[in-house]
Amino acid sequence: MKSISKNNRWLIVIGSVIAQLGLGTIYTWSLFNQPIVNKFGWDLNKVALSFSTLASGKLQEKFGIKKLISICGMVLGMGLILTSRASSLPMLYITAGVIVGAADGISYMKTPSNCIKWFPEKKGLISGISVGAYGCGSLLFKYINGSLIASQGEASAFFFWGIIIMILILIGAQLLKDAVVDDTYGNKGINFTVKQMLKTKEAYLLFIAVFTACMSGLYLIGIVKDIGVRLVGLDVGIAANAVALVAIFNTAGRIVLGTISDRFGRTKLLSLSLITTTADTFVLSFAHLNFAIFFICVSVIAFCFGCNITIFPPVVGEFFGLRNQTKNYGVIYQGFGIGALSGSIVAGAMGSFRITFIVIGVMCIISSLILAFIKPPRVTNSESVELKLNKHIA
Questions:
Q1: In degrees, to the nearest 5, what angle opens at C-alpha 21 toward C-alphas 265 and 174?
Q2: pTM to 2 decimals?
Q3: How many CB atoms lie within 10 A of CB 237?
Q4: Integer Cα distance of 331 and 329 in angstroms
Q5: Alpha-helix runs per DSSP H in the chain
Q6: Which of 141, 147, 243, 260 would give a disulfide with 25, using CB separation of 3.0 to 4.6 Å?
Q7: 119 membership: H or E segment, kind and range
Q8: Which long-range contacts does 285-294 make (Cβ < 8 Å, 24+ apart)?
């Protein structure tokens, strides 16, 4: 990394921001739920189930970051275009849940992980900027997609949405470059391979925490407009404004708390974030909701989710080393996709928003306790030597 100028490093950040703007538009999904329900008469919880995000393993190593994000951008755009033609729930799940979800999840995970490696001395700040752009994408497209749905209908909105973000992601991808890792930063030069990481209990504890954070954040963000209409009795137009509010606070949480995490304990900050989310989900479950309480709760949840999704990538690097961080986080990040899917599955099984919130709140308490006490894995002297020799291990 020493041969790369600081200006060139910032070009990679710019490319990441452009790509993340396109990827973050997926958070406007709740705008489409009710129009799809109205058109086909499907159950809302079953429609919301299509909003999920998946991830993958060694693809960056095979293709390189520029080619991988370019491919994902094209697949994501085509997935949305195909969604415009969906006429059954199974087709919606395949186009939106699998195709769109996989392309968005892979790109979202790989882009900030690569960016962090270029700035090992500013992991929280860079992660905040990169994934903060993801939040900005949902704010911008709240208005674009809302206008398209109102004027063209949800099918045409999906089509144009796909075209626009395909272009955005392809432009951003051209500025990306695979990072060269500087081993002077991280877990004292110790670099776990995926196989070695999976032998530690910390890997599974972090997986549980990621799963919980993403289940709570993504589920609540994905149905925020529906909560406003069904539980608070708001007008559809007013409730839709919550999508913009979520985007603003989500982005603020990523940048503000990502930067703060460079100076304070990241896992303790995550623990506090999940406890706060717990409090808000219980308010949504038990309180008599009005306009003010609803908007405060969803804003705080969005702010906390922004914190969670920003800080987990640097935590994985600090626990298991930067050299294999993309692959290691790729494994831990599976909790993201599974968590996103699980929220809607639980909601469908429970048949109630409020009961689902209680389940999510309990899980947040458990994960908060995990993060309050978790430490980087301890290694013996012989293991330390082996881990420091992982420079050339794939």
A1: 105
A2: 0.74
A3: 10
A4: 5
A5: 6-23, 30-40, 44-48, 59-63, 65-83, 89-92, 101-118, 123-152, 154-173, 194-197, 201-222, 224-230, 236-260, 266-286, 291-320, 325-332, 334-350, 353-373, 381-388
A6: 141
A7: none
A8: 285/354, 285/355, 285/357, 285/358, 285/361, 286/354, 289/231, 289/232, 290/232, 291/232, 291/234, 291/238, 294/227, 294/228, 294/231, 294/232, 294/234, 294/242
Instruction: Assess contact for 373 and 221: CB atoms under 8 A.
Output: no
Q: How many CB atoms lie within 10 A of CB 7?
A: 7
Give the Cα separation of 62 and 244 in Å (integer): 37
pLDDT in tens, 181-227: 665 555 566 789 999 999 999 999 999 999 999 888 878 877 888 88
CB 332 within 8 A of CB 316: yes
Which tokens belong to 41? 């008469």
232-262 pLDDT tens trace? 888 887 887 777 787 788 888 888 888 888 8
Going along the chain from its start, the domains and CATH numbers come out as 6-388 (1.20.1250.20)
Residue 144's φ and ψ, nearest 5 degrees, are -65, -50
Residue 57 in tokens? 């393993």
Q: Which residue do the tokens 């509010």 mark?
A: 245
What type of residue sits at position 45? N
